[in-house]
Prior knowledge:
The chain is α/β, with parallel strands linked by helices. It has 2 domains: 10-130 and 237-294, Periplasmic binding protein-like II (D-Maltodextrin-Binding Protein, domain 2, 3-Layer(aba) Sandwich), CATH 3.40.190.10; 133-227, D-Maltodextrin-Binding Protein, domain 2, CATH 3.40.190. It is 46% helix and 15% strand. The protein has 15 helices and 10 strands. The protein has a 5-stranded mixed β-sheet with strand order 7-6-8-5-9. Strand 1, helix 2 (39-55) and strand 2 (59-63) form a beta-alpha-beta unit. The longest helix has 17 residues, at 39-55. It is globular. The N and C termini lie far apart (41 Å).
Amino acid sequence: MRTxxxxxxxFVLSVMALLLPACSPSHxxxxxxxxxxxxxxxxxxxxMAQQIEAHTNLKVERRFYLAGTYxxxxxVLAGRIDIYPEYTxxxxxxxxxxxxxxxxxxxxxxVKREYERRFGLTLGPAFGFNDTFxxxxxxxxxxxLNIRTLSQAAAFAPHWRAGFGYEFMERPDGYKGLAAAxxxxxxxxxxxxxxxxxxxxxxxxxxxxxxxxxTEGLIPALDLFVLEDDRHYFPPYEAVxxxxxxxxxxHPEVTQALAGLAEKISDEExxxxxxxxxxxxxxxxxxxxEFLRGKGLVR
Length: 299
């Protein structure tokens, strides 16, 4: 399903109408965890929910699939949610409107400092993996054309059709900057598609290049190839919890619970978790519980 700016705008306004009046005080006996509207964010939200339930006496309310970055950010500012999973590069460029640059530790500290100063939010410890944007082509095309980098792919792009998510088309670290950095020109204007449809659209030859994520479980399953960002256009995108500071003041036990997830997920493990849900269609609660039990975090 294609998503256009004109059709999305009323939706954004309607969601904002719900969020803005909701500056309620912190909840005394529970925390509310949100997520964005794609599988990995859903998994990370459930991961934090089960970890907090296992290691505190707090109830956890789940508000998942809250559209994209901007809606989640507004929700946590308004107090409708207390925690949600974010990516440092996304926070830096899409929310703080700053240019990328620096290693992952520098980007983490810049985002944490500015979130605390501007928003009354903070970052929990990183989960351990970096989910950067992945410019994907079919594996057979990569082998046939003998290409492995975005610089090499630019020569073939005029014959290709591209597909991107709405947010990637609009955000400052997205399509326009990438196209300028690599001189990318496609056979037609990029198709704007739901994130969940991109990988299969690529497999089915509806498009020839897609902007996915490096930890997508369907990359190996569908024999897709991730082109190397050889000009280092994208900043680090460490996955981190964004948390309202007021919640941590009221419930310091949440700090300890989230600390238990620090550096617990590798890139490969996140890809496997995504595939378990997306590729094998397993229940996310079962997948997350098995993972936490395997790490010795729950019984």
